[in-house]
Amino acid sequence: MALVSLTDVTKSYPSPEKGGAPIVAVDSVSLEIEAGDVFGIIGYSGAGKSTLVRLINALEPTTSGTIEVGGRTITSMPERELRGIRLEIGMIFQQFNLFNSKTVRANIAYPLQVAGASKAEIATRVDELLDFVGLADKARAFPDQLSGGQKQRVGIARALATSPRLLLADEATSALDPETTQEVLQLLKRVNREFGVTIVIITHEMEVIQSIATKVAVMDGGRVIESGDVFDVFSSPQNPSSARFVSTVVKGVPSPAEVAVLRERHDGRIVTISFRDGGASQSAVFLDLANAGLEFELVYGGINDIQGRAFGHLTLAIRGADAAVDAALAQVGARAEVTEVA
Amino acid sequence: MDRLFELAPEFWVAAAETLYMVALTLLIGGFFGLLLGIVLYTTRPGSLLSNKPVFTIVNVVINFFRPIPFIIFIAAVQPFARYVIGTGIGNDALIFALSIASSFAISRIVEQNLLTVSPGVIEAARSMGAGPIRILRTVVLPEALGPLVLGYTFVLVALVDMTAVAGAIGGGGLGAFALTYGYRQFEPAITWAAVILIVVFVQLAQFFGNWLARKIMRR
Ligand SMILES: Nc1ncnc2c1ncn2[C@@H]1O[C@H](COP(=O)(O)OP(=O)(O)OP(=O)(O)O)[C@@H](O)[C@H]1O
Ligand SMILES: [Mg+2]
């Protein structure tokens, strides 16, 4: 059974103007998040990602629909009981939201105090967590003495203090530079692998999804417009909006403008060959072309590695007699998808 | 100048009276101001214990009393002072009136400073399962402590100023001393002696407040 399951969840806010239509931030969303997943939610600003994730730990009440976490329906729970549920769900934030008046140690200890842990338990657990995030030497520092990456590591340690099964990350790396982003993402990967914590990670950057997510949902206008395995969504997005996100990290089929540029630089036929994991190997395709005595050059595209599986689009400029090219492409077409672009 | 030396005993008594009035008012007014400010902060719409009726009532009451000039306020609450502390005149009556008036002013300062705590930090505490009272006690107040100390320092300085009108209801302090022996008896040196001591008090208070706030905020 899914760890988190949303059924037809809608969240609307009253209109800012009197009598206006309500703002529907999340619109009839149904999702299943399995235990062990790193579930990415991607979408443009205002798509409703933050609202969705805040419904999962009931920081906001839903307008309609049901949400189950660990088999318990949280959408009808009284606030007092919800506090118990929140102890089992960690959350990290874009702006870190550390307590500036408390030391790193006290920040990490806070959720344990809320949970009613003893002083001795707290001390041991905080030490463990400080080691895990590599900040043992910063225990007595205050948040304003830390770098962004260190702050987020404290945020992660704090969110993990009560050993939750689920970690919600709202734009957890958006305030960090690319290198620090990778550091934090690798740490989250360890959290998922070593502790089996299910992670829901919200982002507007496809790189984040590509680095760590196993599943992804694409949101637009409050709706989930596409969801599935990261590999499937990346290798063949079904929705134009998803395709736009994918194109930010994956060099796919060249756009008409790019084709025009390629045309100017290269003579011969320009052809895109799409590879998918389990399909034809590149060497077989190149052998076909070479055996036909054709001269070819890679002019656009690349191969991507998603969760250890490869896919990509390679655009080639092929020179040779038309009939020979046609024959060779027919042969290649039996192995991989071929698109003639110019 | 000679007159100042003659009046030295009265001068030091007046100084002590000022300190007494300011300290007691800061304690009483500061306490009730803190309570009222916390009520305003927690009951405001969208806050920890949002409660529209309570917020509206407290808000209106404070707005009603705040604009009343202090010298008139003293006269207005005099009957009430007689009833509660048994006298309508003297230093204690002034402390009574000033404690009430300053609680309203302080409540606004407290409210403003609590509002500077980032909503994200409160959301983080909520996401860890903390309840509203715990969040107020362990997150909001500690996070706002530095600015609160500066706010109370500002109040302390204002209180030194306001106790100067104690003479109007038969109270003492440096203000009454300056008016009685300096202004009415044409002795500018006496007035200036009182002024200088008040300035020293204010400077010391401000210096201490700044130091404490800096220590808390570690800047
Ligand atoms: N408390 C609120 N009151 C009214 N409207 C809100 C509230 N919170 C969010 N909204 C609206 O709901 C919509 C979705 O907001 P949300 O913050 O979930 O988007 P997001 O996808 O997280 O965007 P971003 O990438 O900018 O963080 C927006 O139109 C926003 O204005
Ligand atoms: Mg957001």
- The protein's oligomeric status is heterodimer
Give start-end ranges of low-pLDDT stretches of chain A: none
Radius of gyration of chain A: 25 Å
With strands numbered from the N-terminus, the spatial order across the biggest sheet of chain A is: 6-7-8-3-9-10
Greatest interface (CB-CB under 8 A), with counts per chain: A-B, 29 and 20 residues
Largest β sheet strand count, sense and barrel closure of chain A: 6 strands, mixed
Category from helices, strands and their pairing of chain A:
alpha/beta
CATH superfamily of the largest domain in chain A: P-loop containing nucleotide triphosphate hydrolases
CATH superfamily of the domain at 21-172 in chain B, called what?
Answer: MetI-like
Amino- and carboxy-terminal Cα gap of chain A: 49 Å
In helices, the fraction of residues of chain A equals 25-40%
The share of residues in extended strands of chain A comes to: 25-35%
What would CATH call the architecture of the largest domain in chain A? 3-Layer(aba) Sandwich
Order of helices and strands of chain A: EEEHEEHEHHHEHEHEEHHHEHEEHE
Unreliable residue runs of chain B: none
The count of β-strands of chain B is 0
Q: How many strands of chain A?
A: 14
Number of helices of chain A: 12
What this model shows, in words?
The complex is a heterodimer of chains A (342) and B (219). With 342 residues, chain A is an alpha/beta fold. Chain A has helices at 49-56, 79-87, 104-114, 119-132, 148-160, 178-195, 206-212, 230-235, 240-247, 256-265, 282-291, 322-333, and strands at residues 4-13, 23-33, 38-43, 64-69, 72-73, 89-93, 166-170, 198-203, 215-220, 223-229, 269-276, 295-306, 309-319, 337-340. In chain A, the strands form three sheets. In chain A, strands 6-7-8-3-9-10 form a six-stranded mixed sheet, with helices on both faces. Chain A is elongated. Chain A starts with a strand and ends with a strand. The mean pLDDT of chain A is 91. With 219 residues, chain B is mostly helical. Chain B has a domain at 21-172: MetI-like fold. Chain B is built from ten helices and no strands. In chain B, helix 9 runs antiparallel to helix 10 (188-217). Chain B starts with a helix and ends with a helix. The model of chain B has no long low-confidence stretch (mean pLDDT 93). At the A-B interface, helix 2, strand 6 and helix 3 of A face helix 7 and helix 8 of B. The structure holds adenosine-5'-triphosphate (ATP) and magnesium ion (MG). Residues 49-50, 171 of chain A line the site of magnesium ion (MG). Chain A: It comes from Agromyces salentinus. Chain A: Residues 4-246 form the ABC transporter domain. Chain A: Keywords: Amino-acid transport, ATP-binding, Cell membrane, Membrane, Nucleotide-binding, Translocase, Transport. Chain A: InterPro entries: AAA+_ATPase, ABC_transporter-like_ATP-bd, ABC_transporter-like_CS, ACT-like_dom_sf, MetN_ABC, MetN_ABC_transporter-like, NIL_domain, P-loop_NTPase.
